[in-house]
Amino acid sequence: MLKYLSVLITLQMPYSETKVIIGGPAPIPVFIFIFNFIKNKFEARAQSTSNS
Predict the structure, then answer these.
(1) Residue 23, C-beta contacts closer than 8 angstroms, at least 6 positions apart
(2) Percent of the chain at pLDDT exceeding 70
(3) b/e 20-50 (16+ beta carbons within 10 angstroms → b)
(4) What is the rounded CA–CA span in Å between residue 45 and residue 52?
(5) Phi/psi of residue 42, nearest 5 degrees
(6) More confident residue, 20 or 7
(7) 15 Cβ neighbours under 8 A, 6+ residues apart
(8) What are the distances in angstroms from CA 43 to CA 2, 13, 28, 47?
(9) What is the DSSP letter of 19?
(10) Chain-centre distance of CA 43, in angstroms?
């Protein structure tokens, strides 16, 4: 087990820490846009149903 851990520690990481930090929250605006798009569709449908 210790042998495998030492191999993992000595391997080069494929991405720099900066890319990982930037890439983590990067898709959040996309998720917010999709959520708001779906929410607005349901609100529009509810208003059109209540007005009829």
Answers:
(1) 15
(2) 71
(3) eeeeeeeeeeeeeeeeeeeeeeeeeeeeeee
(4) 11
(5) -65, -40
(6) 20
(7) 23
(8) 56, 46, 22, 6
(9) H
(10) 24
pTM for the whole structure: 0.58
Which tens digits make up the pLDDT trace of 39-48? 999 999 888 8
In the chain, what's the furthest Cα-to-Cα distance?
71
Task: Tell me the helix, strand and coil percentages in the chain, rounded to 5.
Answer: 75, 0, 25
CB-neighbour burial class of residue 1 (10 A; exposed 0-12, middle 13-18, buried 19+): exposed
Q: Which two tokens stand for residue 43?
A: 């609100």
Side chain identity at 11, as an amino acid letter?
L
